Amino acid sequence: MEVTGVGDKSVEQQNEEQHEEQLKGESALAGVGKYLLHRAKPHLPPWLGVVGTGIAGEGAHLMWADSPWGAAGLTLASVALTGATWWAARGTTAQRRLHSAITVAAGSVWVTAAALSGPISHPVIDLFAMGGPVLALSWNVRMVMRRNTDPVGESSDKGLLEKVGLARTKLGNAKVEPNKVTVPYALPAGEATNDDVSKALPRIASGLDVPTTAVRYRPDPDSARKGEIVIVPNDMLKEVIWYPGPSAPGGSIAEPLVIGVYDDGRELRLTLPQAIHLLVMGVTGSGKTEAALDVMAEVLTRRDVAVWLSDPKRGQDLGEAFGACDWVVTTQDGAAVMIAAFEAVIPARQLWLGSHGYRSWEPAAAKTQDDPAHTCRQDRTACGCPGMPYLIGWFEEAANTLRAVDDDAFTGIAQEARSAGASLVVSMQRASGYQISTDTRASLPSALCMGVDERDAGFALPSEVLDAGANPGAWGNKRPGYCYLVQAGVDEELWSTPSRTFRNNPVTLEWVTREFASVRMAVDEVTATAAASVAGQIYTDRQGPTAAPATEGGPQRAAGTDDDDMTNGEPLVDPEDEGIDPEAELPEATDAPMFGAPAGTTPDDPKAAMEEILRHFEAKGQMVIQTKDVMEHCDKLGRSRPWVAAELGRLGREGRLVPAGGHKYRITPALTNA
């Protein structure tokens, strides 16, 4: 087999040509001499300076040997040249500045002495013979040491660190990856801390001519002066990536939701049971809606999760997901009721989980409880209870909701929901203290922060993440989809790493709602009962999730059809109402008790009258009322506002009404434990 080389020549032919070139070329001795001269050239300038100084001393002696003015001029020139050297070297290291000044001062003093006494007189010639080589060799040694110890010497990186106020910082060996450089550092002990590195990051970015978000640092948790500086020179997030589809179709909500990519190519993963509660924040145009589409599209493909959605936009962005959610409200009053219901289901879910041996929710809790280790029976045999899905309360544009209720409405929920297998997703443009209480914000341990105003970054991201180089204020609404994710279970180094969510659109939600209807489990009876005890007909009469497509020959429910419209084959009209003509006119009103009150009830019975008024609101599904709403009905009874206020106070003490903020009251459904 023929072995070929470069240019399709055999190895033997190449060897022959090389041997012929060697015979025709220079001798080996000449080649060695050329190599030595090449290696010596960088070290020649100091020696040439010594020779030049000797020639300058001889020339000065010939010109000013007997001139007192020459002596004075040379002395002043020596001082001026030394000072100029010290001033010119101010941008270098302290050692280099001092070395340069000493070298220039020694040379200029020798030239002055040689001009007055003669360059070959003693001890002038002795100083030249001994001092000149010493100074030249000192510069040669400095050059050799700088080459051998470049990571911790005066390299170009060291010069940059000195400019940004981190002089004497020792740099380790850089780790170079595609579009990423990681450099370990060690600050001088007792002189600087990692906080100084944090403050210098914008200046480092300026020195490297990269965006401020391209430079960040990772402090060593075991040291106050060590860490790593990470530089990502090119923005790899500029390219838009469309949502590639479900990352774990039919999987558990406990598996990560893949919603984008980091700037180094890694997947942006959000795990809601680990995140516990999530704050989504970003200014208008920052891509917050598309991030919501990504998260919702992933959630609705999982088998063991139920979603409650509050959407003041009335489906403008997330409307295609309504059919997959267990409960949807679109008004401020409805959101207030949902918050109260969410708070009520927490103890009920905790009780169920605890009775089945779960310290916190896990995917096994969503399955039928056929494991004796998770039974509610005293004899420890499998109970067979239906499972309990994970519950997500999603509050879109939460600032609108919080204006209608207390700004700390989520605080109690956020502090207790984790053990109940429930998470809050709170989305808003600005989580300032004027819109959400600091206690609530502190109870939302995870954040997906899009572009924000530079002054608002601290509302979403922890201070240590901002100190490490995270800067969502640099994006604003100019980089839609760019974000930072802070979440337990994610490496802390990624908290300050920029990422970008997938590009998405509502068509994806429509497809997910339809295709994965058979995968999603319905809400459990425990949660539904607890919610109905607070929300009443607002919850029991909800549309609920769209049913899965029916199997061949089986019943099929159309999207948007209420449960009451389906009778499973039973008559659509009660037998006692069959003879009623739906077209007949209603009889004229009489003095019968108002709102269908029981016989014997009269407007003179204030408690009964108020109860009927509340039942009227319940029948309409209006569970949040104001004093003026009650007055509209009490005018028919001739009751005054003081009477209404007194009755509302009584009902509040009895638990029939619960203050809902803003002079509003939430009705507790009748026949339930207030």
Rg, Cα atoms, Å:
40 Å
Nearest-integer average pLDDT: 78
Give the oligomeric state of the chains in this entry, treating copies of one chain as homo and distinct chains as hetero: single chain
What's the number of structural domains? 4
Total number of beta strands: 18
Count of DSSP helices? 23
Question: What does the overall shape look like?
Answer: elongated
Strands side by side in the biggest sheet: 7-6-15-14-13-8-12-11-9-10
pLDDT < 50 stretches = 1-11, 149-156, 547-582, 584-602
Largest sheet: 10 strands, mixed
Question: What class, by secondary structure content?
Answer: alpha/beta
What is the third-level CATH name, the topology of the largest domain? Rossmann fold
**CATH level-four homologous superfamily name of the largest domain:** P-loop containing nucleotide triphosphate hydrolases
Which features characterize this protein?
Threonyl-tRNA Synthetase, Chain A, domain 2; Rossmann fold; 4 domains; ten-stranded mixed sheet; five-stranded antiparallel sheet; 12% strand; disordered N terminus
Brief write-up:
The protein has 674 residues and is α/β, with parallel strands linked by helices. It contains 23 helices and 18 strands. It folds into four domains: 42-148, no CATH class; 153-231, Threonyl-tRNA Synthetase, Chain A, domain 2, CATH 3.30.980; 257-515, Rossmann fold, CATH 3.40.50.300; 596-667, Arc Repressor Mutant, subunit A.
